Structures are given as C-alpha cells and as structure tokens.
Fold this sequence. Notes:
The chain is mainly alpha-helical. The protein has a domain at 37-73. Helices cover 58% and strands 0% of the residues. It is built from four helices and no strands. It has helices at residues 15-35, 38-47, 51-56, 64-68. The protein is elongated and about 55 Å long.
Amino acid sequence: MSIVHTHQPDAHPGLLGLLAAAFRAFFHAVMTMAEQSPRMREIDRLQAMSDADLAALGLTRDRIIQHVFRDRI
C-alpha cells in the first residue's frame, strides 16, 4: 500500500502543528504495526481467495473477520 501526500507542511509549524505532527506519527506507527500483524496477513490471504475456495474452508467472505478473530470475539 502506498500513501501520497499532496499537502506541504508549514516551514515553521506552531504548537498546534507540532501536536498534529506527533499525532500523525503515532497514528502511522499504529497502522504500520496493525498492517504487519499475522492476523491482518491472514485476512489479506483469505480475501484474495475465490468464493469457491472460501466455501471449501467452510467460510463466506462476510465471515472472514470473525473467523480470524474468533478467539477474541
């Protein structure tokens, strides 16, 4: 996945700008960790399968999330 930023930040951000930058950095770190988790990779793998392949596993596309997080839900 790629992200394109079209907004140029101010050269001298104020306090609000610094807080926003810190929040963006934190959010980016959390998203990166989530995307790299084994559960997310399993979701991606299952979503890439055909409906017939999912049916062979006893799954439907709308139940993938519940299947992957079945021990947490």
